[in-house]
Amino acid sequence: MSEEKTEVVVLGAGIVGVSTAYAARQRGMSVILVDRREPGSETSYGNAGIISGGSISPLNNPALWKALPKYLTNRHAALRWNPVWAVQNAGWVVRFLADSAASRFRPRATALHGLIAASAKLHREWIVKAEAGHRIRETGWLRAWRGDAIAAAKQEQALLAEYGIASELLDRQAISALEPGIVPVYKVGMLHTETASVDSPGEVVKAYARMFASAGGDIRQSDIKAIAPDGDRWRVVLADGEISARHVVVALGPWSAEILRPLGYRVPLAFERGYHREFKPNPARPLRRPIYDIDGGFIMTPMEQGIRVTSGVELTGRDAPSSFAQLDQVVPLARGVAEFGDAVGDAWRGSRPTLPDSLPIIGPAPRHAGLWLAFGNQHIGFTTGPATGAATAAMIGGAPPPFDVAPFAPDRYIS
Ligand SMILES: Cc1cc2nc3c(=O)[nH]c(=O)nc-3n(C[C@H](O)[C@H](O)[C@H](O)COP(=O)(O)OP(=O)(O)OC[C@H]3O[C@@H](n4cnc5c(N)ncnc54)[C@H](O)[C@@H]3O)c2cc1C
Question: What domains can you pick out in the chain, each with its CATH number?
Answer without folding.
Answer: 2-46+203-268+357-412 (3.50.50.60), 56-106+135-196+269-354 (3.30.9.10)
